[in-house]
Structure formats: structure tokens, C-alpha cells
Amino acid sequence: MKASISHNRFSVDEKGYYGRFGGAYIPEILHRNVKQLEEAFDRYRDDDEFNARLDHLLRDYVGRPSPLYHAERLSERYGADIYLKREDLNHTGAHKINNAIGSVLLAQRMGKRHIIAETGAGQHGVATATVCALMGMDCTVFMGAVDVARQQPNVQRMKMLGARVVPVESGNKTLKDATNEAIRYWCCNPDSFYVIGSTVGPAPYPRLVAHFQSVISREMKRQLLEQTGSELPDAVIACVGGGSNAAGAFYHFIDRPEVRLIAAEAAGLGCDTGMTAATISTGSEGIIHGARTMVMQTDDGQIIEPYSISAGLDYPGIGPLHAHLAECGREEVVAVTDREALDAAMLLTRTEGIIPALESAHALAVLERIPFDAGSTVVVNLSGRGDKDMDTYLSHLND
Ligand SMILES: *Cc1c(COP(=O)(O)O)cnc(C)c1O
């Protein structure tokens, strides 16, 4: 194992555990795949030629660095200096492309030809289909049938990009079910390369995805130094579905206790309504999609179907990194309702002229909940843009 895995209490150990969360709970048939992936990742993550190719694509194809924007009118309203990390301006409209490029480059180095992925809101599917078009790979995307219906523009994009979109009819036909189906397909087709869209799944996926997303906080530090004179903010806020944009936004601040890390999870209609996706607030320890983590489950271990207005947060698990950070108290968790997210989206649109993704709106809503001192620096990770959510926004405009 590489020396790059350090040994403080927030980092991952050799077996892929963050504290007691993580690991790889997978069927026998996938052991070889996961082992090969781990070896390839540990070989290429510090490879100069690999990183030169990755950096080139992040800059000239994705458009990085994404701006760090001082939102003046929002700052005036909340009495603190609010900065937005503009992942919404990336090619394909969200942070997902950072991981898709890194992962597909890795697949290419491993000689793989066929990429599979799961998707909820469709952003990870679009990002993966995009990179597959760019690199000449076959692409199959599994998507819950309910999400196929509520995220049509992204479904059409994936098809135009040449991906096969497979609607999944099991469970409540959303992200969890798409992930089950992708894992099932992977077991039957171990030659395919599974690009997971978040910091979930068996080790090494959580640390691999966090690594490829860590570019977000690497840029933040440099941009904050330029704009505020200090590379450390007082707080970073990000939404968590599986936890990848939050992992990327928190990554380089995790060992700096003076920086508050605040995760916004989706409360849906409210944590006590049974219509929620707030895994950390309402879940308990269990195993989902190959990792030990917090899970929304009944007393006898049945997964509880999650609900959120936002397809990208509609997931009954959470990345093991976040389960651990939350348990240690390193990360504060705020459960944000559909209503609060819709209001925050409208506020950003009308005060800054930016229509955020519904997922990102959950992070923005934290500004209403937590008061920040005058003069403090608060970064909100704006994980994506709202084009895909226009139907939902318009249908709630006059609520
Ligand atoms: C997918 C998605 C999310 C949620 O996924 P994480 O892995 O928790 O980041 C958040 N925001 C946007 C815009 C997304 O597309």
C-alpha cells in the first residue's frame, strides 16, 4: 500500500475503513475486479503522465478552475462574506465530471472498453456518457424509471452522446435501485468498468472518488488566499447525497479544525414524516452497496425507501467518510426540507441571477438556519446548475 494513505483519525485505513465505516462487502466474483481497480488507482494517482493528462482535460475540456465567486447581495443579506464555488459552470453542469474523467482515464489505462454507471438526477450519467464519447468507450447507464421520467433532458443528452440508458423498474425506481442493477450487471460482466458517481460503494471507490473530487478544495484554498488573504475559510457548506461534492469541498480542510464543515442532507417533507432521505439524521449502522455505513433501515434491516424532491439526494445511504466525520463531530449535519431548498433556490436566482440545481439549493438553505458572524468567510459549494430542475421549479413557483 502506498505511503499516500496517512494515519490521522479522519483518513482511510489500508482496508478502506474510515473509523468503523467503509470496507468492501462484495460477492466473491467481484473480488478480482476490485483488487485490480485498487492496484491501478494506487499506481496511477501519483503518476506524472496520468496526472498531466487529467489536469489538461480538467482545464481545457471541463473549464477548471471553476470560479470562486463573492456573492455580494447574498453576503449583505446574511451579514457574512458568502462565496460560491461554481461547480455549476463545469462542462455538463455539475461536479460529477471531475470524477468521471479521472475514472474513465483509469479504465483506459486498465485496457477496459465498456463503462457502466448508475445515475439519479442524470448528472453522473451525462458526465460519464460525455467522457465515454470523448474517449471512444461503450457506455451503459442504469437509471430508476421514476428518475427517467423526472429528468428527461438528461436522458435525452445521454442518448445523443451514444450511451445505452437502462430504466430500472425495481424498488421505488430511483437511485438505490439503479445502483443495485449496476452492481448486478457488473457481477455478470466483470470485464466492464463500473464508474460510481459518488463516495459510496465498496473500497476503494469512496477514496478514489474523493481523490478525483478533491480538486474542488485544492482550488478553493488558492482562490481564497487570492481574494481574502487567507486560504482557510470559517465554514464550508455542501449538500450530501452520497457525499462526493462535499468530500471534494471538505478534503483539504478536514485536518484544519478551525474550518467548520457543514453537510446538508435532504429531509424531504421532514425527518419525522417517513418521507425523507436524511440518512445521517434518521439512519443506523448497516451495509448498503458494498460498504458499512449509515443506512435508512427498519429494525430488521430492510432498506427504507427514501424520498426527496431532488433526485440527486434521494438515496438511503451515505458515503462512509461522512458517516465517520459526522460521528466524530468533525462535520455538522443539517437536514433541509424540500420547501427550504425551493425557497433557497428562488432566493439565489433572484438575488444573484444564478439558478442552482435542487441538490445545491439544500446547501444554500443552511444559510437561513445557521447564523454566521459578521466578517466571517463562508463558502457554499454550488455543486450544479438548475436546468434539469426547471419543471420542478416552475410547478412550485406559486406554492
Ligand atoms: C449528484 C449530485 C449531487 C449529490 O451527489 P454527491 O455525491 O453527494 O455530491 C449534488 N449536486 C449535484 C448537482 C449533483 O448532480
Question: What does the secondary structure layout of this molecule look like, with pairings?
Answer:
Blueprint: E1 17-18, E2 21-22, H1 31-44, H2 48-62, E3 68-70, H3 72-78, E4 81-86, H4 96-109, E5 114-119, H5 123-135, E6 138-144, H6 145-150, H7 152-160, E7 164-168, H8 175-188, E8 193-195, H9 205-213, H10 215-228, E9 235-239, H11 244-250, E10 260-268, H12 279-282, E11 284-288, E12 291-295, H13 320-327, E13 331-337, H14 338-352, H15 358-369, E14 377-382, H16 390-396
Parallel strand pairs: 4-14, 5-6, 5-8, 6-7, 9-10, 9-14, 10-13
Antiparallel strand pairs: 1-2, 3-4, 11-12
Helix pairs in contact: 2-4, 4-5, 4-9, 5-7, 9-11, 10-11, 14-15
Pyridoxal-5'-phosphate (PLP) binds next to helix 5, helix 11 and helix 15.
Describe this structure in words.
The chain is of the alpha/beta class. It contains 16 helices and 14 strands. It has a six-stranded mixed sheet, with helices on both faces. It has a four-stranded parallel sheet with strand order 7-6-5-8, sandwiched between helices. The chain is globular. It starts with 16 loop residues before the first strand and ends with a helix. The model is unreliable at 1-5 (pLDDT under 50).
